[in-house]
Here is the input.
Amino acid sequence: MRQPVDRTPVWMMRQAGRYLPEYRATRARAGDFLSLCKNTPLACEVTLQPLERYPLDAAILFSDILTIPDALGLGLYFETGEGPKFRRTIRSAADVDALPTLTADTDLDYVMRAVSTIRQELNGRVPLIGFSGSPWTLATYMVEGGSSRDFREAKRLMYSEPAVMHRLLDHLARSVTDYLNSQIRAGAQAVQIFDTWGGVLSTWAYDEFSLRYMKKIVNGLIREYGGRRVPVILFTKNGGQWLESIADSGADAVGLDWTTDIGNARARVGDRVALQGNMDPAMLFAPPARIRQEVADILRRYGSGPGHIFNLGHGITPDVDPAHAGAFIEAVVELSPEYHR
Here is the structure.
């Protein structure tokens, strides 16, 4: 991280996804999303698809953040148009105590097979990034039983029985650490922790129930493997107000959503961490000329030198025109070299 480069590296969150017609065709062959995740050749195929279209600088493991709760026995399934759901929820101390201990190498062996297969197929072309959801984000799905607008049940448990929530988060922190270390041993060359829902917390609650456990994971991760450093990226959506605290977590890079000015973020953290981001994914609905203008503006605001990984501020959405994604990536490739002379 923060090493000199000829141009700003670029990849997209959720770059292997439904906006690509070739992905939709492969998913149809698999039958459904979970079957695609668990089919090693097809998971490898969709991971590589965006690299065939675009000059991206990383491959992103095709998987889902909810693989851990599924492996813990909660019964993940997907309702059309409603997103992920669980057949079991965690609402009490007894529910937490009943959770099994995760052994990622065996309980999530299909993920490790995908990692090793993708790494072999890449053959050094670009690095492979693995990932996991954060403990707090995973806990919200496990307590709510799926997606939520107000996180009522998760916050109810957090505020009324904080000791129970801490036990759940500690269990998940140990699970995520094991999961990411297994990915690293299988071939992931960097890992990202997605704290998608950390931004729904108050400042003190974020420190106590989210960042605290991400720090614990970072401290437990393999940081060198195969003679090379393994960078760790933390991303908290709507977490820009806590940027300094996140930068002090021990991670190598901090992901930014689109609500934080990247120039301001760089001024606040200096050279402590690299910054990843941070174009609004909805900008990809704009005409290509406007997309190019936005890329130019973000590059200008970050300024010269290393330490910027260009990315969207969250995942690319399914109804984006692939040509517009191409315009975004092309603009980064063409416009960023002047900032690295």
Notes: Residues 299 and 336 are 7 Å apart (CA to CA).
